[in-house]
Design a protein that fits this description.
Helix content of chain B: over 70%
Number of strands of chain B: 0
Largest interface: A-B, 25 and 26 residues
Structural class of chain A: alpha+beta
Number of helices of chain B: 5
Largest sheet of chain A: 4 strands, mixed
Number of strands of chain A: 4
Order of helices and strands of chain A: HHHHHHEHEEEH
Distance between the termini of chain B: 134 Å
Strand order of the largest sheet of chain A: 2-1-3-4
Distance between the termini of chain A: 42 Å
Largest sheet of chain B: none
Oligomer: heterodimer
Radius of gyration of chain A: 17 Å
Shape of chain A: globular
Helix content of chain A: 55-70%
Structural class of chain B: mainly alpha
Radius of gyration of chain B: 70 Å
Order of helices and strands of chain B: HHHHH
Shape of chain B: rod-shaped
Amino acid sequence: MGEVENAQYAEAMFSVASAENDTDGIADELFSFSQVFQSNDELRSALGDRSIPTSRRTQIIEDLVGDKVSATTTALISMVVGAGRGSDLPDIINKLVQANAAAGDRAVAEIRTAVPLDEGQRTRLAEALSQKTGKTIEIKAIVDPTIKGGVIAQIGDEVIDGSVRRKLALLREAF
Amino acid sequence: MSYTPTRIGRASRMAIVASLLVAAMSVSFTGVAHASESIGGCLAEHFEEGGEEILASGDEEAIKEFDKELESCIEAPNPILPELDEIIYGGAAFVILMVAMWKWAVPAMKQGMQARTDRIRADLAAAESARLEADGMKAEYASKLAEARTEAGRIVDDARQTADAMKVELQAKAESDIADLRTRAAGEVEAAKAQAVSDLRGEVASLAVGAAEQVIEKNLDADAQIDLIENYINQVRS
């Protein structure tokens, strides 16, 4: 799948979210779904398999997130999967999140931590990153126990890695 | 070289045959002349010239004289000087023979001799030519033989030089290969040593890091996680 096509899908989905007047909420739900999608091999395989009938794949989506996210979010995911582009969902959603942040003159910071952040930590972290980058930061938090501790922040192409995993890696390299 | 009879050769043989015939005739003439001068003839002549009357007369003196005449008939001829008629016939035959021989035999013999001389000369010339040709061929053969020997010598020299060059080249290559092998072996030993050191270091690092991870994971409780997050926020802020 090409970048251009993914961007067009993301733009179309953002237009739908804008029409619903809930771009932030839909973007958050889609981002959360994207995290689940990427971490679950079975789900990724099922939704990306074109040999499975479309009705079956959309039914899986309904069963999985139908009662947890908005109907618009469910419909958007079903649309992409129904078009046979399930394997491109993470990239499309990432582009949609970026487009939503850009529309609000914000930058998306993908924050990985070993334990969930509380509201206070999110706020202080957003303020700190805003101060460092000079942009309004929108936090997208991901819980990733593999980093063992600390925080990894990715804003666009810039990565600020303060994880325990990286410190251990540096320790290993020092030998 | 084979000899083929020629017209000149046949004429020569004919002249010889004719001479022989003339000689035979002269001999026969001489025989006739000699026969006419035999003892019997002599006695008959004496009887015809009055011998019978003398005998009939009974004159002893006359008879004795007649006996002497008869005895003269039986005297031996001159062993040196032949009779006149023999000389005439023999001389005529000789002259005829000489003329015939001078007329036919001698020219034929001269022609034959000349032809033989010419033939021998031609044979000698041909033999000389053949000898010269053989000498030329021999010289050519000798030249080619010498050339072949020179070429063979050159080939042998070339082969020897090539063999020497190959020997030197192979020796140099063998030495180079040995040097390369030594260098490579030394490099491989060094690499193996470095790899062993690196593996050992990695193993030690892995053990150390593994131990550190275990220690860290044991100590990373909720408070420690919060402290890490707060420290991160403070570092970003600073």
